[in-house]
TrEMBL record:
PANTHER family from the UniProt entry: E3 UBIQUITIN-PROTEIN LIGASE NHLRC1-RELATED (PTHR24104), PROTEIN LIN-41 (PTHR24104:SF25)
Gene3D superfamilies xref list: TolB, C-terminal domain
Signal sequence bounds: 1-24
Keywords: Repeat, Signal
Keyword Lyase attached: no
NHL repeat spans: 267-299
Domain of life: Bacteria
Gene Ontology MF terms: zinc ion binding
Entry keyword annotation includes Repeat: yes
Protein name: NHL repeat-containing protein
Length: 414
């Protein structure tokens, strides 16, 4: 018994020493980071933005965000999607037995435009009453281009289309056809859909669209069914070029679940969640479940890749990307919806400088931080999916010394 107690004490002592050493190592790393005088943009959440919405409106899963040239913030969400997979996506559960259960709440229209002060400036969207377009079964992305057109994609099972509207919600064009990838041999009550990452006419559950005004092109993260980046002409919607991981021709290979210890995947996993073009012509692709960013030239030539929180499983760590607003776009921001951070990188070195936010419901925290966008002043806007169902603003407080590396809380200091 004495020997057992002695061994237990030795084991506990060794464990405590290991913990202290680990903590000490982390502290030394932090001190080193601070001592190096690293600089990065600092942010504070604005708990009063946006302002309360009219008409008792509430959000469902807030699934896309874009900022136009007037610094108006646009979001698309799943307020009352007819194709919602379950009630957790929606702004408010459907009425019980066809009867409204109380005064709360009214799902907001699918597309919401906020002015810089946080007021709702416009709202529209949803299935066409005349059948002139096919609204996505599951909203997923929104972007406003340099001509003022609003582009919307979807990641519902049959969403093979992209829609184009005016700012006021007038339909302009549809590229691709809903259910185009439907497997004709599947039963009608349980339809299946086939990927085709070489299809030049339809898409495969689009995750995001990025606009290049100089070339009049759109970079499509295509996405949840297909395994590619597709570049389209913004006037015709025609696909001009495409590529898969490492700049290879895309394939529809179904890969096993991600394993950080396994050899690096040679193709994108679903979903390819973003494809963002920088001012100097590089395309940053969110290979979300592979925990990596792959960087390409605009013609699809592979440049390099970096891994982010490589041990992250489930939905992965790289959800969305945007850049700082200085001309050089010195900093790159990554929304990480599993670890619930916004990660701040030095874009030249692709070194993570620090991250802010962690899981929770209070302002500055995240639950499924899904999309990210910046305005002309360098402020960051985020949307949250799952049960987060929220739009938040993080005010740019200027570049300053990095004082903490992991999960800084961006609460206002005054």
């Amino acid at each position: 018994m004495k020997r057992l107690l002695k061994n237990r004490k030795a084991y506990v002592g060794a464990s405590l020493l290991a913990v202290m050493m680990a903590l000490g190592g982390a502290q030394l790393y932090l001190q080193e980071a601070v001592a190096q005088g690293k600089q990065a943009p600092r942010f504070e959440v604005d708990p009063y933005w946006p302002k309360p919405m009219p008409n008792n409106w509430v959000l469902g899963q807030a699934i896309g965000v874009s900022v136009d040239e007037r610094d108006h913030v646009w979001i698309v969400h799943r307020g009352s999607d007819p194709g919602a997979l379950d009630n957790t996506e929606l702004a408010f559960p459907p009425a019980r037995n066809g009867l409204r259960v109380g005064e709360c709440c009214n799902p907001a229209p699918a597309v919401l435009e906020f002015d810089p002060a946080g007021n709702v400036a416009n709202a529209w969207g949803g299935p066409s009453k005349t059948g002139e377009y096919e609204w996505p079964a599951s909203n997923h992305s929104i972007v406003v281009d340099h001509k003022g057109f609003v582009w919307i994609g979807g990641n519902g099972p049959g969403d093979a289309q992209i829609l184009k509207f005016t700012r006021d919600g007038k339909f302009v064009a549809q590229y691709g056809k809903a259910d185009a990838r439907k497997d004709a041999s599947s039963p009608a009550d349980k339809p299946a859909f086939k990927a085709d990452s070489t299809d030049m006419n339809n898409f495969g559950r689009v995750a995001k669209i990025m606009i290049d005004p100089k070339a009049n092109e759109g970079y499509v993260a295509d996405g949840y069914l297909n395994h590619r980046v597709a570049v389209i002409d913004l006037d015709t919607g025609k696909i001009k070029r495409m590529w898969g991981a490492y700049g290879k021709p895309p394939t529809d290979e179904v890969l096993p679940p991600y394993d950080p210890a396994a050899p690096v995947a040679q193709q994108f996993r679903n979903p390819v969640h973003c494809a963002m073009l920088s001012n100097d012509g590089f395309v940053y692709v969110c290979d979300r479940p592979n925990d990596r960013v792959q960087i390409f030239k605009s013609d699809g030539a592979f440049v390099k890749e970096i891994f982010v929180a490589k041990d992250t499983l489930a939905d992965g760590s790289v959800w969305d990307i945007d850049f700082s607003k200085d001309p050089e776009q010195k900093y790159l921001y990554i929304a990480d919806g599993v670890n619930e951070h916004v990660r701040v990188f030095d874009r030249q070195s692709m070194e993570e400088l620090y991250n802010f936010g962690y899981g929770g419901r209070q302002p500055g925290m995240f639950l499924g931080v899904h999309s990210i966008a910046t305005d002309s002043k360098g402020n960051i806007y985020t949307t949250e999916t799952y049960t987060g169902k929220r739009l938040q603003k993080f005010v740019n407080k200027g570049v300053g010394a990095v004082t903490t590396v992991n999960a800084a809380m961006p609460w206002p200091t005054q």
